[in-house]
Amino acid sequence: MSIDTNDEIWEPLIEKICDEKCVLIMGPDIASPQPGQSIVKLLQNYLEAKPQKGKEVKFYSDDEFFLFADNTAKAFANIRIKKFYEGLATPVVYNKITEIPFHLIISVSPDHLLKTAFTAGNIDFSFDFFNKEQNPAELEKPTKNKPLVYNLFGDIDADSSLVFTYDDLFDYLIKIFGDFRLPQALQYQLKNCETVLFIGFQFEKWYFRLLLRLLRLNEVGIKGASDKSISLLPGVRNFYADEFGMEFIEADEVEIIDYLHSQFEAKQMLREIKKPKAPLNYPIYISYAWEGEREQVVNDIYNTLIGKGYNLIRDKVDLGYKGDIQKFMELIGTGTYVIVIISDKYLKSPNCMYEMQAIVKNNIKDIQKRIFPIVLADARIYDPETRLDYIKFWEEKKKALEEKYRGLDSLSYTADVRDFLDHYDDFRRIMDYVTQLLANLNTLTPAMHEGNNFSVLMKALDQQIQEDNSK
Questions:
Q1: Which of 50, 67, 122, 274 is the most exposed place for a label (fewest CB within 10 A)?
Q2: Among 232, 266, 300, residue at a domain's last position
């Protein structure tokens, strides 16, 4: 290890971490899959790889902000931005960060990588983010036993919170300096901390100076920052040393975290990574429509429940290359426990409705015990009038296919098409029953499930499994 272990910063830093007086602030580039390359620069390359007319993106490299042609282009870009961040792998250093007993970690990035690392380690934690369009909710006090991960620049699942343009930044600064101040619990922790550790921070960005003032970090006694992986001009370095009392550590973020991890390991003070309990013998299937919000909800459910030891079966993981899709859908239908992500696309998807058809067929007597639905906002199942739209949809699908089928000169060798006609008819038949059933069940929104880390869903699964085992 090339780190200077004699540096006087280490002893007080470790002491303050133990005393819950040290805040870790993480820069955005730690997660970059290309060392030395800005994560936002990689995002720029990603957005420009598939340009679409009228949705071109301009990029200002000095401050790493984008300019979108209009709100439509921005909305389109937000979808791709979310996919970019979802595609990032969790760096190994994040796993070590979760084990070091920081009580508060602030991330200057909208990703979920640290959140995923905590979940994978089965470590109790809380998560929140600043949304420039909403007055922040109050937070519980962060502790070593239940640390807080706070995304200072928004969250990829909330478009209105993201800060990727100058306008976003100005709105952000107006709100965070004005009415939408940080939650009181977070302000209290920042006001009373005695040490701050910055890793992977881009100090040359002018607006970070404002943020440091906003966070009142100029008042904190001890401030250390990784320096080996960045090239700061002497004037910038001197400014932070003079104005903020910053001490630059001649080591990069990985070396710093490795050293802290080794020190807490020697003291036997690392957080315990709880091995997931032995997977339950009962397979739990997930039925959903691919892409969009649906995909993210499934990702979150899958990562959380797998981390807790549940035996989740998901097509993208368990089907395999060249797997039989129809047999897999039938297998979902025979599942004793099925998590169903209901969306507008789900209710209009032949594959999803084939799965639902099988679920109804195999569990008609106790279907309410076998399905665990999560209803997305675009699923229009709560009004009888809009529920009729789904029935009409499958009537028209069958009618269109039937007209083409009857128009053939010969009806031989069309058994598969005839099967589709039967399925469309059955989808129409069960639609009223399914939508009424789902509308009458007390379901939580994805945001509510996310807020309680899917504990309500897991409790419902545990209760049903326990009930089945007692019979």
A1: 50
A2: 266
